[in-house]
C-alpha cells in the first residue's frame, strides 16, 4: 500500500484515539498493519525464515534472536542472523510484543507479557529442533529480555546456556530516540513508527524507563543472571541512548565488554550495535566461549 495512505490512516487514528491508551483505535486496521514500502525495499530489510529442520554439527545450541524496541524480526538482528547462518549456527527469530494494529513494530507491550511470548518461542524451538538448550542474543529491549526471560519465566534458565545482551537498558533508559533504528527506511518509516507509537501506546517504553516496572524488578537486589547461564553484556562508549553505566550487570561471572576495548576506533552508537562486524565477532566469541578469537573491527553506525 502507498505510504501516503498509511500516514493518512495514522493521522486519523491519532486524532480520534484516546492517547496513550493501547485500546483499539477507531481506524481501519488494514491501513495500519501494512509495512511501508520504503522499509521493505531498504537493503537492510529481511531475515531468513525459521527453519526448524536446521541442524549444526559445530554449534548444538540454536540461537534465538531478540530484536529491540520498535523493531521486529526483519529489522535489527536480521543481518547478524545471516552472518551466524554462514558460520553454521542455526538461528531463530520472532517479533514479540507487537500490537495487532501494527504487527511489524515489536516490543511495545509490557515486558512481562513479551517475556511469556519469548519463553513460549524458546520452548517451540527446543521442541521442534530437538536441541536441549538454546542461546539468547538480544539488542536493547531484546538484550533486557535475554536476561529477564530466564529470570522470570519458569524452567527457562535450565534450557538456556549463553546469554548475549547488546546495550540492554538494565538500569532505566531515558529512551526517546529508539526510532532512530527506522532511519533505514528513511524519514518515512521513522515518522510512521512514531505515529504508531503515539496511537497504540508503548507500555514497554514505560517498563524500561527509570522507575519502570521491569527496571525495578531487575534491580530488586537479587541476582539477574541465573545459575548455569553464561552472560555477556556488549556495550559501546559512544552509546548515547543506553550508555554503559545503564547496561552493565555487575555480578560475578558476568562478562561486561566494551566494544572499544577490542576495536578502539569504532564509534558505534546504540542502533549500531546490531550491525557492526566487530560486535558480531564478539557475539560469536561469547557463543563459542573462544573469548580471545580475533574479530573484524568496523567503523560503526554512530546513531
Ligand atoms: C531447512 O534445513 C534443512 C536441513 O538443513 C534443509 O535441507 C532445507 O533446505 C532448509 N529449508 C529451507 C527452506 O531453507
Ligand atoms: C529527514 O528529516 C530530517 C529532520 O526532520 C531532515 O533534516 C532531513 O532533511 C530529512 N531527510 C529527507 C531525505 O527528507
From TrEMBL:
Q: Which GO terms describe its biological process?
A: lipid catabolic process
Annotated Gene Ontology MF terms?
A: lipase activity
Domain of life per record: Eukaryota
Q: Which residues form the signal peptide?
A: 1-17
Q: Does the keyword Lipid biosynthesis apply?
A: no
Annotated SUPFAM superfamilies = alpha/beta-Hydrolases
Keywords, comma-separated and alphabetical: Hydrolase, Signal
Pfam name, any one: Lipase_2
Looking up InterPro entries in the UniProt record yields: AB_hydrolase_fold, Lipase_EstA/Esterase_EstB
The answer, when asked if Signal is one of the entry's keywords, is yes
- Write down what this protein is called: Alpha/Beta hydrolase protein
Which organism was this protein described from? Schizophyllum amplum
Q: Source organism lineage?
A: Eukaryota, Fungi, Dikarya, Basidiomycota, Agaricomycotina
